[in-house]
Design brief:
Length: 306
């Protein structure tokens, strides 16, 4: 685990001290769009997506690539599940970088910006033409995938429809802070108070979701939207990883009857289950965070039944 400072790699864990033991996520820095008339045009074969199967943020992008019929237009590379002193790494195929044969993901960040300072995260949406990062913020990558390539694919599925946007944004806001990032705030807290604060916010928000799903199948309106997919990638990891490894252990998702069924419904949506690679998910979390799990032993359970 580390970061780049003025183009130099430093092996450093998150600095929680200056925030009273709290984990504070940094902002993504590459924030371009793909659109007609802009520097990044919607073109088949031009872009490449780098993901980790372990990562819930990258998982969003993988799901949208699948649901929007982009697989033949945007290739994907998957990093090795372990993220250690050099950050995300490539290894032997199929976990390699087919574009530049890089050893480490940070080399791609340096190719995009030789003086880059910041964290080296997945997902990365790469432009092969300009040899740079288009965007490394999953919330924006899924919006790009949702509509930018529609003329190319003919796929008009819309997970961010105009009439629901305001409500989707409101739901996303709470889900992001208290659940998606909330599990990390529990797991990476280095002071009891910070952990308990995050724990309370997380389970209050999960209760709120459970209530919200009373008599309805999806979070917003009566259709699947990006709000559901953004929640899904955290829920699907919860019982296997966050419950134990991140000490988010008041209840499991399988203890909430509505959320359990909801999770199963999303998991079985055509194409989605193949984006869930539980082996990478477990190996990554239990194996990479040595401050939390020094033995790096990966638990065998639990038995999951989505
Ligand atoms: N806001 C980013 C966050 C991405 C992110 O933090 N990814 C994690 C993996 S789950 C990562 O690459 N972390 C490496 C690090 O923080 O050094 C997004 O949603 O795309």
């Amino acid at each position: 685990m580390g970061l780049l400072v003025d183009g130099e790699w430093h092996d450093k864990w998150y600095d929680t001290k200056k925030h009273g033991g709290r984990f504070v996520r940094s902002e993504s820095q590459f924030r371009n769009s793909i659109e007609q008339g802009g520097p990044f045009l919607p073109e088949s074969g031009r872009y490449h997506l780098f993901v980790s199967y372990a990562c819930p943020w990258a998982h969003r992008a993988l799901i949208f690539r699948k649901l929007k019929g982009l697989e033949q237009h945007i290739d994907v590379s998957v990093v090795h599940p372990l993220m250690l002193e050099n950050g995300w790494e490539f290894s032997a195929a199929p976990l390699n970088d087919p574009l530049y044969q890089s050893d480490f993901l940070y080399q791609l960040y340096l190719k995009a910006d030789p003086n880059y300072s910041g964290r080296v995260t997945v997902p990365v949406l790469w432009d092969k033409q300009q040899e740079t990062i288009v965007n490394n913020e999953s919330a924006e990558i899924i919006r790009i995938f949702n509509s930018a390539f529609n003329d190319l694919t003919g796929n008009e599925l819309d997970f961010y429809p105009d009439h629901l946007q305001q409500e989707i944004d409101e739901v996303n806001e709470r889900v992001y802070h208290d659940i998606n990032n909330g599990v990390y705030k529990c797991g990476f807290a280095t002071e009891q108070r910070a952990y308990e604060e995050a724990f309370k916010a997380l389970f209050d928000a999960l209760e709120w979701v459970e209530e919200r799903l009373d008599g309805r199948d999806y979070l917003v309106g009566d259709q699947l939207t990006e709000a559901d997919w953004r929640l899904f990638t955290t829920l699907v990891r919860f019982d296997a990883v966050y419950f134990g490894h991140f000490k988010a252990n008041k209840y499991r998702i399988s203890d909430y009857p509505r959320m359990r069924d909801y999770l199963s419904r999303l998991f079985h949506y055509p194409g989605v289950s193949e984006t869930v690679v539980m082996d990478h998910i477990k190996r990554h979390y239990y194996g990479s965070h040595k401050t939390i799990n020094p033995t790096q032993i990966v638990p065998v359970g639990p038995e999951l039944s989505f």
